[in-house]
């Protein structure tokens, strides 16, 4: 079987991850890398990668079948269009582009040239997301009425370009892309309302965090939150249904599922709670609920490449579809508008 020849444009944090993973891929051949920063070119050579002197050199190399774009966000559109016009397929880092209008241009060129444009939504392979999706789809918690998904860090926005609007910075276009994509893959429901609040604790120009509330057609809500000024974290996943609740703390998958036996026994006894009494909030005991471990799901994020290669060989449909990516970008655009107006907005 012939290997797929890939060249990487942008060999920073994520590009160097791709370079390592692709070097280990049996079905890929990393033919070379190009970065505008001489220090990154030196790094590439120190790793034994062949370096190109310019983007034009990458595109002129007939042996390159796939260009993998891992530059700052604002450059994705132009590089993708140039690459497809040069006859290359494109794997592009998320976010596909900065906004829907740019993605529409890219999709148009993909259709005109017949070349693949696919976005690297690797967090569709995150175990926490896969477990929550399974619990939701199997109705393990009954009818789900609220899902919360979070990533909270305490290091501010890293790097130069992520803090600048002109480079497509901000957390909605960063972690937001992953978490929104996961949520829209988790449920098939239509979104009815979007409300978003952004934070600007360490950065005035772009959002350094946000809280996004999606209300779906059934009334189910999703709370998606990203923070970069949080020195204590909160659980990454929390899902509540009328028959149970599930929680996952962090990437180590520590968590639990608590399932209700029956709603019959409603007459709790009041307990003393801080300075008062409460019956409503009296914790349930083992007689009425059952605690279970979080199920585990084996997942391999490198299946992403396998899917792209299968697609190019005509053996599979592409998993990350551009219309799904466009829907995520529409949510982000509306979230930014909602935050600016401090108003809930209609969607779909
Ligand atoms: P980075 O700043 O570490 O790397 C970007 C690199 O692009 C730098 O080395 C820079 O010199 C280079 N570059 C800039 N302009 C260029 C140009 N015109 N031509 C060639 N190279 C150029 O940033 P990063 O964290 O690696 O992020 C890069 C992309 O990857 C972003 O779109 C980001 O959103 C995405 N990303 C995705 C994930 C994921 O999990 N999928 C994780 C991190 C970053």
Distance between the termini: 44 Å
How many β-strand runs?
16
Query: Major β-sheet, in short?
Result: 9 strands, mixed
Molecules bound to protein: nicotinamide-adenine-dinucleotide
CATH topology of the largest domain: Dihydrodipicolinate Reductase, domain 2
Portion in helices = 25-40%
Q: What's the CATH H-level superfamily name of the largest domain?
A: Dihydrodipicolinate Reductase, domain 2
CATH class of the largest domain: Alpha Beta
Order of helices and strands: EHEHHEHEHEHEHEEEEEEEEEHHE
Outline:
The protein has 348 residues and is α/β, with parallel strands linked by helices. It is built from nine helices and 16 strands.
Structural overview:
It is built from nine helices and 16 strands. The chain has 348 residues and is of the alpha/beta class. A nine-stranded mixed sheet has the order 15-12-11-10-6-9-8-7-16. The protein has a five-stranded parallel sheet with strand order 2-1-3-4-5, with helices on both faces. The relative contact order is 0.14.
Fill in the keyword field for this structure.
348 residues, Rossmann fold, Dihydrodipicolinate Reductase, domain 2, nine-stranded mixed beta sheet, five-stranded parallel beta sheet, 9 helices, 16 strands, 25% strand, elongated, binds nicotinamide-adenine-dinucleotide
